[in-house]
Amino acid sequence: MTVTLITGGSSGVGAATARLLLERGHRVAVTGRDRDRLDRFARTCGNPGALLPIAADATDPEAVRAAVDAAVARFGRLDAAVANAGSAASDSVVDGDPARWRDMVLTNVLGPALLIRASAGALKATRGRIVLVGSVAGLVPAPGSLYGATKWALTGLAENTRRAVTGDGVGVTLIAPGRVETAFWDALGGVPDGPVLTAGQVAESIAWAIGQPPGVDVNTVTIRPLGQPV
């Protein structure tokens, strides 16, 4: 029995990953800020006993710790922690609106760090895995993009964390998707023209990382839709 906690798990890639893992017999805890959205997601899954929806802000240290504790209390262990919660603003650092930046930076950088801190002990006990959902934007610079800079920070965080926990038997995987057709693009003016991945395709990569055999640590998975040049 594998137990996975996913932040931002009520929609998009997080929800697709939760559904896929549930279908494969996993126990899954999902967090999100919106209780109603979490409840709607649980209903679409049939409210299974293997799903634990938790209302929690990924940028709140106490809420993240409580979510980890709740998952362990409910299912008895934790095998994987997936930092999926994310925020986006299309602003440039050159002429954008700073009022739009704070939530994005906290969600995309502080949030994953808090999940790592809160879950490390439980994952050491199971020799589990941390999965950080980054972006191609964290591998390829984009002019003026503060969003891209937050994903570059996540790329660095993944390797820094790997070096800190690999001796304890904990794996760390950065999943770096290209363009994905989700509500994420709503804040950026809509999905760009051209090929896109589905949330389900990215979820397959996350599930693959979680399912690596003991002793194997896959560290970076870059996944683009065929035809995306950048």
TrEMBL record:
Domain of life according to the entry: Bacteria
One Pfam short name: adh_short
Keyword tags: Oxidoreductase
Keyword Secreted on entry: no
Family stated for the protein in its record: Belongs to the short-chain dehydrogenases/reductases (SDR) family.
Protein name: SDR family NAD(P)-dependent oxidoreductase
The species this protein was found in: Actinomadura nitritigenes
Lineage, uppermost ranks: Bacteria, Bacillati, Actinomycetota, Actinomycetes, Streptosporangiales
